[in-house]
Amino acid sequence: MMYGCMVPQNDHTQGGKRLLVLPASVAIQTCLGGVYAWSAFAVPLRSDFSLTAAQTQFIFGTAIAALTIAMFFGGRWLASFGARRLTVLAGVLFGSGHLVTASSGGDFALILTGSGLLAGIGAGLGYAAVLTTVGEWFPRNRGLVIGVAVAGFGAGAMILSAVVSRLLQGGLPVLDVFRSVGMTYAAVIVLAATLLFSAAPAPATTAEGLEGPNPRLDRECCTLIAGMFSGSFAGLLVIGDLASLGMVGGLPLRMATLAIGGFAVGNSAGRVVWGCLADRFGYRTIPFSLIFLAVALVSLYMARSQAGFFLAAAIAAGFGFGANFVLYAARMATRHGARGIAILYPQIFLAYGFAGITGPSMGGYLHDVSGTYGPAIGIAVVLLLAAAKLADTSDPTRCS
């Protein structure tokens, strides 16, 4: 059972097709990664429509949860629908979600439906299709290639936050910005899906491909779930309200918004670098990445009133956050091949969805109650250090 068309291994077109797969994947991921630019939308939504921090962060958390659940099912639907059709559906849903928000008039329930549920489902379906496809095409350098592909997802926040900031400063109402983004991104995703999946990978062996029995969760996977939850909880808590964190510390809106782009730069770069480290050092990169993110979050909070240090800390936090989307997928690919990415990794990724609901919502609530993000960041750091300790004691290289 293969997710792509059957193409002979010696087909001379394979090299050329492979050159199309990766850039098309990055283009799709860049659009879908716009979900991480939510902080740029949250500030005008609060000021224009009197939404609370808890409400805007609940919308963001819902999008992350919907993304995760959709990815879980998307990995299983690939065999039935094919990657191209699944990604086209993803583009339609993602764009439609933004259009629903554009027509909401600022109503919380409609924004939740559009930017939370529909856009999140679209992002999850597209993420599953793209990640599995690049895993099939590049079996020898999965860590690096998965890192490059998901780097586009991280870059999406940087690009969209810059575009949104410019449009808002130019006087365009925030709901009209949603409309422009929805129409543009839906078109790009659909076109890139057609280009990407018109070239399918060659059949793989049972050991490396998508045939054979489904892999099951084991003790190591449970440890990875804890790491994924802790890393995602910490990163999503910050990225969903990064601009407000800087503004509470006394930074002007322009500098606070710039930190969103800095986080996205670090996020994108981190996905590539962590992928290379995973290929080189394997499992050992996981506990190190969690400790790195904990240090970055402490630095971010301490530097919230100093523009230069705040930007540097945001880049470091994004760099650490990016590890979540490479290391766990690369580990599953190493142990189980492409089928591990399609079947087992989405189960680990469910922890990301749970973190999406709890992290941003808790951060917004504690800020509403206390006026500071200190307690929320403190909780995140404790979770990171606990997960790092668990991952270190479960290191399979130390037990062999």
Structure description:
The protein has 400 residues and is mainly α. The chain has a single domain (18-395), classed as MFS general substrate transporter like domains (Growth Hormone, Chain: A). The chain has helices spanning 14-32, 38-49, 53-81, 83-102, 108-137, 142-169, 174-197, 219-239, 242-248, 253-281, 285-302, 307-322, 327-336, 338-370, 374-393, 396-399. Helix 1 packs antiparallel against helix 5, helix 1 packs across helix 6 (142-169) and helix 14 packs antiparallel against helix 15. The chain is globular.
Question: What portion of residues belong to β-strands?
Answer: under 5%
Level-2 CATH architecture:
Up-down Bundle
In the CATH hierarchy, the third-tier topology is known as Growth Hormone, Chain: A
Largest sheet: none
| CATH homologous superfamily descriptor | MFS general substrate transporter like domains
pLDDT averaged over residues: 81
The number of domains is: 1
Q: Structural class per helix/strand content?
A: mainly alpha
Number of helices: 16
Shape category:
globular
User: At the first level of CATH, what is the class?
Assistant: Mainly Alpha
Into which percent range does the helicity of residues fall? over 70%
Per-chain topology:
Blueprint: H1 14-32, H2 38-49, H3 53-81, H4 83-102, H5 108-137, H6 142-169, H7 174-197, H8 219-239, H9 242-248, H10 253-281, H11 285-302, H12 307-322, H13 327-336, H14 338-370, H15 374-393, H16 396-399
